[in-house]
Each structure stands twice: as C-alpha cells, then as structure tokens.
Amino acid sequence: MLVAVAPAAALAVGVPATASAATIAPTKACYTNVPTKQSENITFTISGGTPGGRFQVAVESYGVLSGNFDGAGNATPTLSGKFGMGTIGPVSGKTFPVTLTEYTAGGPAVTGTTTVKATNAALDIARKPTNPFRTRTWRVSGLSPLFGGGRLYASYVNGKGSSSKVVKRVRLGSPNACGYLKVKRLLPPKRAYRTWTVFVHVGPSLDKNKSLAFNFRTFKRYY
What we know:
Strand content: 35-45%
Oligomer: single chain
Signal peptide: 1-21
Number of helices: 2
CATH topology of the largest domain: Immunoglobulin-like
Helix content: under 10%
Number of strands: 15
Distance between the termini: 106 Å
Order of helices and strands: HEEEEEEEEEEHEEEEE
Keywords: Signal
Structural class: mainly beta
Shape: elongated
Largest sheet: 5 strands, mixed
Number of domains: 2
Low-confidence stretches: 1-19
CATH architecture of the largest domain: Sandwich
C-alpha cells in the first residue's frame, strides 16, 4: 500500500497551481475620447486574484498596464491611452475587449475578461435641408461620461466675448450612457439672418468649458 501511495504523491507535487478565477470590471459605463486630445483614463476593479501576485490588464486599441494584487487579491489599476475610434464624429458607444492575465508559478494565464465602451466628444448637425428654417438631424455624444448624466440642452448665443448673450435655450433630450443623442431640431433659434453659435451641454446652465459648440450663419440667396 505504501509503495502505491508514493508515486501518486510525487505526481501531485508536480502539478502547477491552478490560476484563480479573478473578476474585472470598469468603474464607469462609458469613457470619452476627445479627438484632439487624449482619451479618458480607465479605472478597473479587480477581485479574486492571487494575493501579492503579478497581473497585466490589456484594453484592445487603447493600452496595457501591469501591476500587483494586494494581500487580499484585489487591485484598482488605472490605464492611460487613446481609443482607436475610427471616426471623429459622434458615436453611440463602441465596445473594446479587455483581458486580465495573471503570472503564477504555472506561467501566464488569462483569468478574467470584460469589455469597456467608449465614445467621442463630438457634435454633428446635418447640412441638409438647405432651407435654414427647417428641422435637421443633430447627433451628439461624449458629454455625459465627462460631466455627469442628465438631459442635454442647446443654448443659442449671439455675439462674441463680453458682448455675447444667450438668445434661446432648448431641451434636446436624454442621451444614453455614452452621452449619445440623435434628434431633429431647428438650427436657427428664430428667423434672423446672422452668425450664430450653438452650445450643447448637460443640464440647463451653460458652461462653455463643458460644452460642444457649432458655428453657423443664416443668409439669403438671390438667383
């Protein structure tokens, strides 16, 4: 009986440790990419990892970060990078795969997966119809992840600098988690031929530093 037990014990020693079933999740529902700047940092919550062990988080088309779990097998890594969105226009939400790799005595192993959603900070107002006083399609995205949820509004501003003033403010509607909203609205606030700037923002109060702007001019054509 003892002779039979010895080989079994030797085999057990040689089996590499099984990687833990770690879980990983982003701390936000969506992240914003500013086309002319860097994307938002992404913070993850990881639990169930190997206490004190080494790990790597990779976000497709964004970036990679390595770190160590704490004594309880948890971590909250923050990655910096820039999403490859494929467009600079408004996006309802693009999904990117995320993998968590742990480095144990048995070698590297993917022990957790998830996804993150991203969008652009962008505003697009259709050029057609050519009649400026007919409704046209508006598309906007990216404000809510940056500045908090809530309804989107449009403020029409006339003039520049200290002489500028809000002529009219309208409610656009409630966007999705990535701040995306598609609506049909009139572009000029009234029948007047002049240059305007429309600011789209979260909530009824206008803060130009937390808004997306669109400049346009209404004029008469003579044929």
